[in-house]
Amino acid sequence: MSDLQKQVQEAADRLVESGDERGLQVAVYQDGVQIVDVVAGVADPETGRPVTAGTPFYNFSIGKGATSAVAHVLAERGLFGYDTPVAELWPEFARHGKERVTVRHVLSHTAGVPGVPLDTTPEDACDWGKMVAALEDAELWWEPGTKMGYHAYTFGYLVGEIVRRVTGKPISQVLREDVAGPLGVADELYFGMPEQEHARLARLEDAPMDMSAWGEMPEDLPMLKAGPMTLMPNAALGNRPDYLSADIPAGGKTSARAIARMYAALLGEVDGVRLITPERLREVTAVAASGADEVFGMPSAWGLGFNIGRPGSTPEQTPTVFGVGGAGGSTAWADTATGTTFALTKNRLTNDFAAAELISGIVTSR
Question: 154-167 and 63-76 helices cross at what angle (nearest 10)?
């Protein structure tokens, strides 16, 4: 056992023993080879089923990294360019002045359509046709490309419908055929997950949270206009069978090793598979938009489909890191400077990235 594997395992075990975490996985790749494969705790507290390296977890926004990877693989094939207007691929999207929105705007969260209707139910979120129709009817919050704001739910449907229009297939099928399948992780990396597979998933639970901060939030906060509270990430939502079966590519179901492997194949070759060229990697990991997020208010920087900077640091401090973290504290990222990819998945939903920051600190200081 390598020293790094041992250190990460000890840290993961401590997190579970302390009660801070219930079950988690950590995977690290270096230059296309997995060097850390750690599991700790239980996937299902009711049965005591342990977490294994192949246990998929529902991770809210981590899935956006896979959504973006699918888009880049198709762009690599010439099915669209980043400056292609979305309406050229999907004519109905042009309504209400959205004809100027490009694929680049969508990937960099500058498209200006960050919100779903406030009466959207979890059942609606599982209905692809309904969500696509809502996007076609959506009005711009800002002129495309002039501001940036996290498209929490809409990102997945926007990219997913672009994918469907150019391939004729749902994005879950394209993920399987063109990304997860070639990488040998088709049974660990999903958008829509077949119901007969659900028993393999980790069960999510909510960590106790200090909700007092919510009471102080101004009612006109843009975040509260971008979607209803019923779609805010929590364990009940992430354990719903319809949510797990549906294509909602703003999130995904994955093991840590599957998503870390996918990022490794964006950086370079993994067992003969490379998803994009070095030139495209440079393009998608360059800052495309930065500043104050119009929806959530925090400063952030986006490449094409990926956040720039490691959780717990600023884009300026870690400009070579790209990835997407998720509500609940799971995260996945890659570092173009070191050839490292990192993923931490967990089933206890916290409102911070403390576990990921602790363990990624061990990895990056080696």
Answer: 30
Please tell me which residue, 216 or 74, carries the higher pLDDT value: 74
Helices 354-364 and 3-17 cross at an angle (nearest 10°) of 160
Angle of CA points 294, 295, 296, to nearest 5°: 105
Q: Which tokens is 303 given?
A: 């490449």
Return the SS3 of 307: strand
**Cβ atoms of residues 332 and 304 within 8 Å:** no
Distance CA 138, CA 129 (A): 14
Going 285 to 290 to 296 to 297, the CA torsion angle's sign is positive
- Two tokens, residue 87: 């309406």
> Do residues 116 and 134 lie in contact, with contact meaning Cβ atoms separated by under 8 Å?
yes
Q: d(Cα 308, Cα 285) in Å, to the nearest integer?
A: 7
Q: Which of 205, 174, 188 is nearest to 75 (CA)?
A: 174
Active site residues: 61
Cβ contact 291:108 at 8 Å = no
Q: Which residues of 44-54 are buried (b: 16+ CB within 10 A; e: fewer)?
A: beeeebebebe
Taking only the tens place, the pLDDT of each residue in 242-293 is 999 999 999 999 999 999 999 999 999 999 999 999 999 999 999 999 999 9
The gap from C-alpha 5 to its chain's centroid, in whole angstroms, comes to 25
